[in-house]
Amino acid sequence: MVDRLPSYQDDPEQLALAKFMELNQTHAPKSKFDYSIVMEECEKTGAAYILIVEDDVVFLDGWRHRTMQALNVATTKSWEAGHTNFLYLRLFYYESLLGWNSESWPTYLGSSLNVITGVLCLLFLIRRYAPTARPYLTCSVFLLTALVFTPFLILLFFAAGRNCVLPQPAGVHLMPKNACCGQGLVFPRATVADELLPLFRSNRWSQVPTDSFIEQHADATGELRWALTPVVMQHVGGRSSHGVQRGTYGVMTPSRLWNFGFEGNDAGALAAEHLRVNNRTL
């Protein structure tokens, strides 16, 4: 928490700029402008880390101690990777973007062909070294296995969804691609002061949304982007702020579960875990 609530009224130049942005509906520049004001105020507190949270989220019971543990792990892993710091720790991500991605189709095709080839090699080995199985391993069996049964099982594998068959590992891990959104990001204070604040100020009128703007900076600089699994917060928003006029409902987006893993938490288990942690720190 900041020591005081920042306001546009604190600086006439900021107030005039905010009014101009709102009148011209410059959503992306306005969001970066707001981010810079909030980050600057948080940076003044001298806290080691700064958590930027949007207002349409729900935290789970005990989120803070999990986050602090994850920050220690992220720092250690960053040092081991040869970095003195990292860009952020992500406390929430949208699972659907971590599914099967169209740009990775060559990898999926190659893996599928490898599986089919492996199955055929296994059948050939069985036919060669197990004479009793030869009468059953006919040409039709090979064809059905290679062209029907194995491809069908591969299709079932993909149909189940990547988050089901290949879920994100528990703990702190890198998430440099397909990470959304900016509902909960923890930044080291040094990263905010030395990189993000100057970046926002020098690119104030960029039309790139704030979360994508931060991701582009990470892509360009190679900064480490860590994510915590399971997530400790859930996005509950079902309405987009893009194009919203004052006094209107704005653009509605379909309601959805943004992170299915969050919904699997047990309230009683979380409360017991939180109590154990509190008792250890007393």
| Helix-strand pattern | HHEEHEHHHEEHHEEEEHH
Question: Structural class, judged by helices and strands?
Answer: alpha+beta
Shape: elongated
Name the CATH class of the largest domain: Alpha Beta
Helical stretch tally: 10
Beta-strand residue percentage: 5-15%
Compute the number of structural domains.
Answer: 2
CATH architecture of the largest domain: Alpha-Beta Complex
Between the first and last Cα atoms, what is the distance in angstroms? 23 Å
Helix content: 40-55%
Low-confidence stretches: 246-254
Q: How would you characterize the largest beta sheet?
A: 5 strands, mixed
Rg from Cα = 25 Å
Q: Estimate the mean pLDDT confidence.
A: 88
Number of β-strand runs = 9
Per CATH, what is the topology of the largest domain?
Spore Coat Polysaccharide Biosynthesis Protein SpsA, Chain A
- For the largest sheet, list the strands in their spatial order: 1-5-3-6-4
Overview of this structure, please?
The chain has 282 residues and is an alpha+beta fold. It folds into two domains: 8-97 and 172-281, Spore Coat Polysaccharide Biosynthesis Protein SpsA, Chain A; 102-160. Helices cover 51% and strands 11% of the residues. The chain contains ten helices and nine strands. The chain has a five-stranded mixed β-sheet with strand order 1-5-3-6-4, with helices on both faces. The chain is elongated and about 90 Å long. The two termini are 23 Å apart.
